[in-house]
Design goal:
Layout (H helix, E strand, L loop, with lengths): L8 H29 L6 H26 L4 H19 L8 H18 L2 H6 L8
C-alpha cells in the first residue's frame, strides 16, 4: 500500500539498503585514496584503477538511487545489475586465498532482499514513471 509520499515502504527499504551500499562504496574509495597518498600500496597503477572504478561505480549508484527515488522504470534494472555484481563478489568471498565468509554473507543478504523487493507489485507500480517530489 502506497503511503502519502507516493513511495511504498518496500521502495523506501530498497532506497535505504542502496544508500548504505553507496556509503560503504564511498568509504572503500576513500580508503584506497588515503592508502595511495600515504604510500601504503604495492602497486600504484592497480590502486589508482581500483579507486577510479570505485568512484565511477559510486557516481552510477547515486544516479540509480536518485532515479529510483524519482520513480524511473529503468532504475529497477540498474539496481538489479548492482545486486548481481555484489552477488558475484560475494561468491568469490567464500573461496580463495583471501576468503572471508563474513563479507560474502554481508553482501548476499542485502542483495537478495533488494532483488526480492524490486519484484513486489508496490515497487513495480511506483516505478512506472515519475513520482512527484515531496
Amino acid at each position: 500500500m502506497a503511503e502519502k509520499s507516493g513511495r511504498p515502504s518496500a521502495l523506501k527499504a530498497i532506497l535505504a539498503i542502496l544508500g548504505v551500499e553507496f556509503c560503504v562504496l564511498v568509504a572503500i574509495v576513500v580508503t584506497y585514496v588515503v592508502a595511495t597518498v600515504a604510500g601504503e600500496v604495492k602497486s600504484l597503477p592497480t590502486m589508482l584503477a581500483l579507486a577510479a572504478l570505485g568512484l565511477i561505480l559510486a557516481v552510477w549508484l547515486a544516479f540509480v538511487i536518485k532515479s529510483l527515488w524519482g520513480g524511473r522504470r529503468w532504475a529497477r534494472n540498474g539496481a538489479i545489475f548492482w545486486q548481481l555484481v555484489q552477488l558475484t563478489v560475494a561468491w568469490g568471498s567464500f573461496t580463495g586465498e583471501f576468503a572471508n565468509p563474513v563479507i560474502g554473507v554481508g553482501l548476499i543478504l542485502p542483495s537478495v532482499a533488494v532483488i526480492a523487493l524490486l519484484f513486489t507489485k508496490s515497487v513495480f507500480d511506483a516505478t512506472q514513471g515519475e513520482i512527484p517530489s515531496d
